[in-house]
């Protein structure tokens, strides 16, 4: 029904918004994708994973799509009579499952998908959403890597620069982009004030040590983003993996990351060579017993922060 309405609107050329939602973003000219090369999807046959769509406790109409811990994908899903808003996609099979599950349980289609950032593990199945007729939102910096990396993912139809609002059924959904970058230069924070719910993929953590060596890293913007999230004090924070998190978790994460930075830059300024420096960094130590991934991520985190500091500080010469 919704798709018919949308099509009719397009045919008569009226500047009316689509039926299920309105937004303050920019329409993407599909010509930018013309002739783009697309690589084969390496995860196309990766279907042997248990999936779920679980209600978020105490949050009406709000769900989370995911798979077993540590959850290779997860994202918020907002259900309204007019359709479903889905954040991120797992792989192709997971997205097909989610599309069918939403139809079966709620009798609606996915009408809007928000792609949090241009990393393939969060976008792989998004073509399924596009094929189902959903509009696709991404931050404008996501367009370049989607084309340049030849990603087999949905082509965004709506983009924005720093802030955008979507009115989806009864809900206002605020999309925020930190211009200094964080875990990507195309990251979106999604905030639903009426539900006090936040999607903060990969930047926020859930008593988990940040991933590996801070790939695609922008340290100052990461801290800015955490401050933005902490100021909102969300009742629930979906982090794109693992389990949902709290504001307190982000305060602890901010403490850890600033301590890591402070230690690495102090030792770097002392002139310690890498082999000596990393052995003297103990920022993760207080979280050894409580945070998932300490053994696997701790050393890589020091490497990533060292790389950032080494690339960005200048002394006297
Ligand atoms: Zn990522």
From TrEMBL:
Domain of life of the native organism: Bacteria
UniProt-listed GO biological process terms: antibiotic catabolic process
Residue stretches making up the Metallo-beta-lactamase domain: 71-241
Coiled-coil positions: none
Leader sequence residues: 1-20
Any Pfam family matching the protein: Lactamase_B
GO molecular function: hydrolase activity
Statement: the UniProt record of this protein carries the keyword Glycosyltransferase: no
Keywords (A to Z) from UniProt: Hydrolase, Signal
Entry similarity comment: Belongs to the metallo-beta-lactamase superfamily. Class-B beta-lactamase family.
Name assigned to this protein: MBL fold metallo-hydrolase
Organism: Palleronia sediminis
């Amino acid at each position: 029904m919704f798709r018919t309405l949308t099509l009719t609107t397009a045919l008569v050329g009226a500047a009316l918004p689509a039926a299920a939602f309105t937004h303050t973003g920019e329409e993407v000219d599909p010509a930018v994708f013309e002739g783009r090369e697309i690589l084969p999807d390496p995860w196309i046959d990766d279907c042997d994973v248990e999936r779920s769509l679980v209600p978020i406790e105490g949050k009406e109409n709000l769900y989370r799509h995911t798979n077993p811990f540590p959850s290779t994908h997860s994202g918020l899903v907002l259900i309204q009579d007019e359709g479903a808003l889905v954040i991120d996609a797992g792989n192709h099979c997971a997205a097909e499952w989610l599309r069918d599950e939403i139809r079966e349980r709620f009798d609606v289609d996915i009408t809007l998908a928000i792609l949090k950032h241009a990393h393939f593990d969060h976008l792989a199945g998004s073509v399924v959403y596009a094929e189902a007729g959903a509009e696709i939102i991404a931050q404008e910096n996501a367009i370049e890597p989607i084309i340049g990396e030849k990603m087999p993912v949905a082509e965004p139809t709506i983009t924005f620069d720093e802030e955008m609002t979507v009115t989806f059924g009864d809900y206002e959904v605020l999309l925020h982009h930190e211009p200094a970058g964080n875990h990507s230069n195309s990251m979106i924070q999604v905030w639903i004030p009426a539900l006090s719910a936040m999607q903060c993929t990969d930047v926020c953590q859930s008593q988990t040590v940040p991933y590996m060596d801070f790939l695609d890293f922008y340290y100052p913007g990461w801290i800015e983003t955490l401050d933005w999230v902490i100021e909102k004090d969300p009742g629930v924070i979906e982090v794109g993996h693992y389990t949902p998190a709290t504001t307190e978790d982000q305060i602890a994460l901010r403490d850890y990351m600033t301590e890591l930075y402070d230690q690495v830059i102090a030792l770097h300024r002392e002139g310690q060579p890498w082999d000596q420096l990393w052995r003297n960094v103990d920022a993760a130590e207080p979280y050894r017993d409580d945070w998932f991934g300490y053994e696997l991520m701790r050393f890589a985190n020091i490497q990533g922060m060292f790389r950032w500091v080494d690339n960005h500080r200048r002394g006297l010469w």
